[in-house]
Write a structure and sequence with these properties.
Elements lengths: L4 H10 L19 H12 L4 E2 L1 H9 L9 E4 L10 E4 L8 E4 L2 E4 L1 H11 L2 H11 L5 H10 L6 H11 L6
Parallel strand pairs: 1-5, 2-3
Antiparallel strand pairs: 4-5
Helix pairs in contact: 1-5, 1-7, 2-3, 3-4, 4-5, 4-6, 4-7
Amino acid sequence: MPLSSIDLAAPLVRHAHCDGSVRLGHTLPRDLEPSTLAGWIRLIEGPGVVVCMETAFLLHVGGAGYTPGPVDVVGTGSRLPLERTHTFAFTLAPSEVTTVDGVRATTPERTLVDLARLAPLARAADALIWARPVLNPEAVAQVVAAQRGLHRITRARQLIMALWPEVLG
């Protein structure tokens, strides 16, 4: 049976926490604060927009070590994509949306599962390593269970099992 990219990356990401100055796949500035990012998003997007993926992750954990890029937003049929945004076609339950510094964002658990599904492998693994000491495993497991049938949820399950087995074990 051939090895998947998840199998090949597992030994690397298992020990990524050993040096706190190393962030997988990143060499970035350390001066972005969540409130600064939130103000920037409010200026670009306006009220009512729900941010997701990398942008939501940065709001939840702070921007230290990450380069700001396009704002990741949940798109709706009535909203045209705006400049400097990356739009995702997600369906969100009201319980999967929270507010951080005045910006509507996916919850930390939903953000983590979406990154595990869709982000590049090193970025998804980095988010999972961050999440282990911070998030409740049962809450993450509930979000994973609720996403049954979503595109690439199997990848998310495999990655979570490799890096945080108590969530789905």
